[in-house]
Structure formats: C-alpha cells, structure tokens
Design brief:
This is Uridylate kinase. The protein is built from 7 helices and 9 strands; from the N terminus they run E-H-E-H-H-E-E-H-H-E-E-E-H-E-H-E. It is an alpha/beta fold. It has one domain: 3-Layer(aba) Sandwich (Carbamate kinase), CATH 3.40.1160. Strands 3-4-2-1-5-8-9 form a 7-stranded mixed β-sheet, sandwiched between helices. The relative contact order is 0.16.
Length: 198
C-alpha cells in the first residue's frame, strides 16, 4: 500500500506528539485530516444555524491541523500530490468545493472520508475506542449501513457509496496503529472495498 489518509480524532489531542512521531517515521504518503475536537464541541454548544455551524466546525478542524503542523508535519490546503506525511488544512478547500451537506450528520469523520475518496487513498480513522461500536459491541467488518454513534451519521453511507477502503482504529494503541499502517486492520473495524469481498 503506497499511502493512507489518516483522520486524527480530537480526543487524541493529548497524545499528538506520539502520533506525529509515528507518522514522521512512515516511509509512505500520509495525508493527515484533523478532527474538530474541543472547538467543534464548543460550536455545538453555541448552536448556530446549520451553515454557520458547518464552517465554524471546519475552522476548528483547521486550528487542530495547525497544531499538528506545529509538531513537524508540513501542511497542505488542497488535493495535491504528496510524497511524505502532510496535514490537510481543510477550510479553504471545502470553501472552494463545498461537497457535503451543512448538517451535524457530517463531521470531520465524513470530511476525512471525502478526502480519502478525492486522494484515491484508503482511510484510517483514529479514535479513542477500539473500532465502531454498535449494540454495545465492536463490529469487526462492515458491508452495509448500521446504527452507531462512534462515527457521524453520514460516514458509513459515504464510505460504502464511494467504495473507499476504510478502518476505524484505536489511536491510543501504538501497536494497533502500526499494524493498520502496514495494512492489518484486524484490531479495529474494517470496511473493505466492494471488490475485496468479505
């Protein structure tokens, strides 16, 4: 595998230096998509209209992206060729393309899925849980939509519709992250492309 889009959830802000160290050691293309984190949570509390909330939350992603960049990963702000780990600053790109509904059904999870589709790369979503949880248990493989609050409402339908290979992994477990970057998604939840089968 020649690269991944990696979404770094806001809940992992306290271990960013450790994650960045792993990313910088990788000899592959990585596009890091920042989560919204505490900034997006603050937008929810303010409860502005949907359009304002959308852009305010993406601004929060942009700030988190600058934090990741400050640790030594160069930023990009468009769908451009990359040959090394880079962090996507999404605000201007999404303003230009505006590809997704302005709703809390879409958060940084689905924005990362869209980025993976646009970069034609598989997606690894790093969260503080062991994978996608449904009905109180971790789901190992997903091939059809299901109800969960681990990711936003639009994420799984977008992944399935656009045939993006994806995995949701616990970013707090370095071994799981290293395995995922080597193509082993067994520790989390795997969403294969349709051509792979189950």
């Amino acid at each position: 595998m020649d690269g991944y889009v990696v979404k770094v959830g806001g809940s992992l802000a306290d271990i960013l230096p450790d994650l960045v160290s792993v990313f910088k050691s990788c000899r592959m293309r990585l596009v890091i998509v920042p989560g919204g984190g505490a900034g997006a949570d603050a937008v929810r509390l303010l409860d502005p209209d949907p359009d304002s909330a959308h852009w305010m939350a993406i601004s929060a992603m942009e700030q988190y992206g600058h934090r990741i960049a400050s640790l030594g990963i160069p930023p990009i702000d468009g769908i451009v060729p990359v040959s090394h780990p880079s962090v996507l600053l999404p605000y201007c790109l999404l303003r230009r393309e505006d590809p997704l509904p302005h709703s809390w059904d879409v958060t940084s999870d689905t924005i990362a899925a869209w980025a993976a589709w646009r970069f034609s790369l598989p997606l690894i979503v790093l969260k503080s849980v062991d994978g996608i949880i449904a009905d109180g248990r971790k789901v190992d493989i997903i091939a059809s939509p299901l109800a969960t609050d681990t990711v936003d409402y639009a994420f799984i339908p977008f992944i399935l519709e656009h045939n993006v290979k994806a995995a949701v992994i616990n970013g707090r477990r370095k071994r799981d992250l290293l395995h995922a970057l080597s193509g082993d998604f067994s520790s989390g939840t795997y969403i294969p492309r349709r051509t792979e089968g189950l």
